[in-house]
C-alpha cells in the first residue's frame, strides 16, 4: 500500500529527536501566541522565521506549521477564561465559552475545545493526506495562464470574503500589487521604483513588511486600547467533559471538522470563517437555538473544531500548487523559498520527506497540544497575567532585532517601521491587512505568469479564455466581481458582515 | 553609571576594531552567505547544495544559501558586486551571463571584472528539447516545422542575455528559423512548463534533460561528444550545426576581497571539487565537473569572452533588429 510507506516515511522524519523538538517548540509557541490577545500566529511566524534559517527545511516547516494550528488551541483558552479572543478565530467561542465559565463550567468548556480541536485536527490531516497527492498530479496541467487566472480568482475570493468593505480590501490589494512591482524587472532587468536604493532591487522584503504590519502595528494598536481583563481566577476543575457533554458535542465536532476542512481550502481567513459558519449551522439545526449564548457546549465544540480543521485544509493549495490562501500560508511559502524548496506541483514528489514529515508532525503536534492545553492549563492562566507594559515592549524589541538580523540592513528596519505605522493607520480606518500581504507575496508571481502567458500567446489575452481550466477561473472571478451589484447577494453579505464586525484577521 | 557607559563604549570599540582587521588566520569567524542568482532547484542550487556539506566541514562554519532570482541573475550580481568584500558574502555565477549582461543590459550595475572568480565547479552543455507530444522527433524536423511556422514555436529559456537566450539566437541564425523565446526565471520553471506542455520547446541544460528525459524529447546536445548520461542524443555538431553552447558555474565574490582570504576560499573549493565522490555525484546528475582555481577560472572566462565576441560579430547576433 502506497500510503502506508509514505506514512512510515513521515514517521521516520518526525521521530528524529530534532524534529520532535521543533514540533514541540512550534506548538508551544503557537499556544502561547494563541493565549496572548493581540498577538496572532501571523506575527509569531514572521518573528520566528529568521531563526529557522540554519536548520533543515523540514524542521523549520514543522515548527512554523505547529505555530499555526497551535494558536487555534491557545485562542480558545483566552476566549473562555477572559472573554477576550486570544486570536481572531476564537471570537465566537467567547459567546458560549465564557458563559460556561461564569457558570463554573470552565473545565468542560476548555476540555471540549481541546478534544474537539484534536479530533478536527486529525480529520483535517487525514484529508490533507488523501486529497493533496492526487491533486498534485493534476497540477502539472497548470501552466502560466492557469496560474495567473487561479491567483486572480484567489485574490478576488479573499477580497469578497473580507469582513469589511470590499472596496477597501480591493484598495489594499492594489496597493500591495503596486508595492510588489518595486525592484528589478524579472525579464528585462530594468530598475523599477527603486530610487537607487540597492536593498529595493529585489523588491520589498516580505519579512520587514509582515513584521511591520502584524508585529509593530499590533503593538501600537494594543497600547492604545485599555484592555479590561476579568480572568476567571477560581481554580479550573473537571476538565473532562461528562457523558452528556460528549453526547451534545459529538455531531457538532464532526460537522465542524468537515466544514472547516473544506473552508480551509478556499482563500481567505479560513479559520475565522469556519468558526463563524460552524456556529451559525449549529444554532440553526439545534433543537434549542434560543439557548445559544447562554453557555451551551455545542457553541464551543463546533467552532473550535472548525477553526482547527481549517488550518489543515489551508495547506492543500500550498503543497499542490504553491499558492498561498491566507497570510500565514503566504509566510510559509516564503519559508519554502528561503529553505531552497521551489513551491509548486513537484513538491510532494520531489520532497516526499518534507510533505509527509509535515503531515505526520501535525498528528503528533495535535497530540502534544492536547497535553499542553489540558493538564498544563494553569500555566497558561499565569501567562495571561503578564502585564502588558512588559509584554508589548518585548514584542517590539524582538521585531527590531529580528528584522535587523536578516541582512544587517538599516533600510529594512526603516521599512518595517514604515509598514508598522502604515498598518496602524490602516487599521484605524478599518482596512484589512490580508489582501495587502497576499498581494506582496503573489504580486511578482502573478506578474511573471501574466507576462509568460502573453509571450507564449504572442500578445493575445485570449489565451486566458481558450485554456479551459483558466476560462473557468476567469468566469468565476467575473461572477464574483459582478455579484455585489446584485441586491439580493449584497444584502446577505452585509448581514454576515455585521456578525463579523470588528474582527481582525 | 558613568563607568558602565565607559566599559560599554570600550567593548563596542574593540568589537569594531576586530571586524576591521580581517585576516586569513581567523577567517571565517561566522557563517558565510552564498547568494544564489536563480530559483531553488536550479543548477547553481543543485551544485551549491552538493558542495555545502564539504565546504562547511572545510571552513568550520555554516554556509547559508540565499535566493535572489530575477533578470537572468543580473539582480543578484548587481547586489554581489556591491557587497562588503570581506569574504563572508560570495555567490554563484553563470558564464556567459556575467559576460553578456553588462554588455547589453541597460540597468545592470555590475561589470564582469568587478568579481574574483574563486572557482569554476562545473559546466553543463545546452541542448534542445521539445514537449513529449510535440510533432517533431529530430532537429531536422524541428527546423522544417519552424520554417513552415515562423515564430510560432514557443521556446523556453532562462533570462535574456544568458546562455539559453544566446543558444536560441545562435540556433536561429545558423538554421535561418525564427522561434518565440519565452523568458523564465529559473530552469526548474522551464522544466515544469515543458513537462506540462505549456511551451513547445526549450534550450536548456543537460542536467534537466537527464533528470526528466522520460517526460520530454531531447533532440540534440551542445557538447563536443555525446554525453554518458544521454547516450542516444546526438550533438549539434553531428547534425551539421557548429554550436557548442554551455553554461559554466561556480563561486565568486567582490574583487576587493583580501588576497589571503581569496586563497583560503580557493583552497576550500579545490579540496571539495577534487573529491571523487563529489565528481561522481555531479556526473550522475548530468553536470560536467571541473576543478579550477582562481587563475584557471579567469583564463576560462577570458577565453569564453573572446569566443562570444567573435560569435556576436560573426553572426551580427545582437544588432538592434535582432534583439
3D structure, described in words:
The complex is a heterodimer of chains A (505) and B (323). With 505 residues, chain A is an all-alpha fold. Chain A has one domain. Helices cover 72% and strands 1% of the residues of chain A. Chain A is built from 23 helices and two strands. A two-stranded antiparallel sheet of chain A has the order 1-2. In chain A, strand 1 (183-184) and strand 2 (191-192) form a beta hairpin. In chain A, helix 11 runs antiparallel to helix 12. Chain A is globular and about 70 Å long. The two termini of chain A are 41 Å apart. Helix content of chain B is 42%, strand content 20%. Chain B has eleven helices and ten strands. Chain B has two domains: 31-122 and 247-312, D-Maltodextrin-Binding Protein, domain 2, CATH 3.40.190.150; 125-245, Periplasmic binding protein-like II (D-Maltodextrin-Binding Protein, domain 2, 3-Layer(aba) Sandwich), CATH 3.40.190.10. In chain B, helix 2 (43-59) links the parallel strand 1 and strand 2 (63-67). The longest helix of chain B has 22 residues, at 294-315. In chain B, helix 2 (43-59) packs across helix 9 (259-273). Chain B has 323 residues and is of the alpha/beta class. Chain B has helices at 2-20, 43-59, 74-81, 97-104, 139-148, 163-175, 187-195, 206-211, 259-273, 276-284, 294-315; strands spanning 32-36, 63-67, 89-95, 115-131, 154-158, 180-184, 201-205, 216-221, 246-254, 288-289.
